Amino acid sequence: MTLFFIGNVEERLVTILLERAKNIRVTPISLEFNELDYWPKPKVLCLTCQRQPMSLYNLVNALNLMMADLPIRQEARPFRAHITLARKAKKRPRITFKPVSLAAESFALVESISTEDGIQYQVIESWPLREG
Prior knowledge:
This protein is an alpha+beta fold. It contains 2 helices and 7 strands.
């Protein structure tokens, strides 16, 4: 689940992010993805949560603050936890499903790498979620 999309940045900014992220203190996060959403403009089918815990908002806000003075574009829309199921979807299918629970005890800086076999994700660094 993407908390903050950074995009392509210079190596010096990655170094700054790695140093700053060490100072984030947020409790572990539990989510229940219990809604199937279709977003027509990007044509994305995804799972979302009816309720997002305060600890998730605290983490996203901490990340936004951490990057506020850096030349990284911040998302204008409010954060909405989601798991993308399909891109280029034409409509929301009529299906029922059991909610998907996710428990996060850490967050990470992840690099997406394009390969012949598709996108691969590589964790650069991760940090535990814990109160300060």
